[in-house]
Amino acid sequence: MYKLRSLVFAAALMMGLALAQTQVTFWTSATNPPDVKALKDIVAAFNAANPKIVVKLVQVTGSETDAAKLMTAVAGGTGPDVYMLDRFTVAERAAAGLLEDLNPFGANALASNYLPYAWAETQFNGQTYALPFDTDARVLYYRKDMLKAAGVDPNVLDPSKGVPSIKLIQDIAAKINKTDSSGAYTQLGFIPWFNQGWHYTWGWAFGGSFYDAKTCKVTPDNPGVVAGFQFLYDWAKNLDPQKVQTFLSTYAPPNYPPAQDPFVTGKLAMIVTGDWFLETMKQYAPNVDYGITYIPTPDGKKTTWAGGWSMVVPKGAKQPAAAWEFLKYIAGAPGQRIYTKESAHLPTWKALLNDNSLYDARHMFFKNLLPSANSRPPLPVGALYWDELTNAMNKVTLNQQQPMAALEEASSRVNAQLQQFCK
Fold first, then answer.
1. Can you tell me the distance from the alpha carbon of 144 to that of 20, in angstroms, rounded to the nearest whole number?
2. What are the E-state strand segments in 134-210?
3. What is the pLDDT of residues 218-238, one digit of tens each?
4. Which domains can be identified in the chain, with CATH numbers?
5. What is the pTM of this model?
6. Helix, strand, coil % over all residues of the chain, rounded to 5
């Protein structure tokens, strides 16, 4: 009887604790390790430190510019309390009425702790709609074993030699390219538009500018951006766009797992990607000898760009106060410390950039690039602009449209929507 009473008491106690806890639902579209593991570890650490709040991590479908599930949930009153949103889209989602203003919680008091460009991306109409989470930088990765096999000394790409020229990368790639008896590529040196070889990557590499604040217009038809797209058009033409598409369909099909990345498997010798890829290589290709260097440019100037995610409270959140407590943790020093260490992203919390214990030698290379990194303009049409630039890039890399024509179309579509926000 005593044991029965003890079990009943324990069950009642546990029920009382459960009732006393505030449950916070946290949505993320992250799917791959190490990001998901790091997020789970942050949630576990927060829950342990905050017994009155329990955060539940939920993985949902989505991407940088696809917030369809969030929009549907908010409209139906079933949205989460916290959402992990790509930071450059914050202004657009705030303009659409999807996000709660965080100023009533005292968000502005935290502004000085964050990198200025990251904080700027959380703003819309003078209000704060997000807290910055991680950031990153992009460089050129190269497999030393593949270069050696092609008769190329990998030391020519050592970063001590400065920024590699476009011509040097072209020459190296040509020596690595291989085809089978049917003419299909079985190995390629470089596909400039693969992975993080985005429109912004090459527009900035060629000295371009994507936005003119004075005229309140996007400028994808800027000469430098056009030159970057011309570089992509010419590279694709030289390789044959359809043959490259076949190669990517074979070795990098949609939603391929990290272990099948063509750089990891030795099918692609060079890629432009970010610091998070350091963890991918550590986990899936620990014995591969590779190096990192600057993104190639035509003029020898260093270039990179930084993005990153943010934490927001969607409209209609059922537990906004508890959500705010979690936001301060995950986007503050405790959460960002875990994420930096486990996922090889960079923090936006400035004090953590001075903690060198968080970075190994390779990661330090990325951190040192951050002060001069470009960042996407924080526009209330940021997601639309990205999608239009992506559409234009796809047409150009398939040689379906000339760069200027494709970019002028993007300019027309985006500026038509941007003007409603211009004063």
1. 57
2. 134-135, 138-143, 178-179, 185-190
3. 999 999 999 999 999 999 999
4. 2-136+307-375 (3.40.190.10), 138-303+381-421 (3.40.190.10)
5. 0.94
6. 50, 15, 35
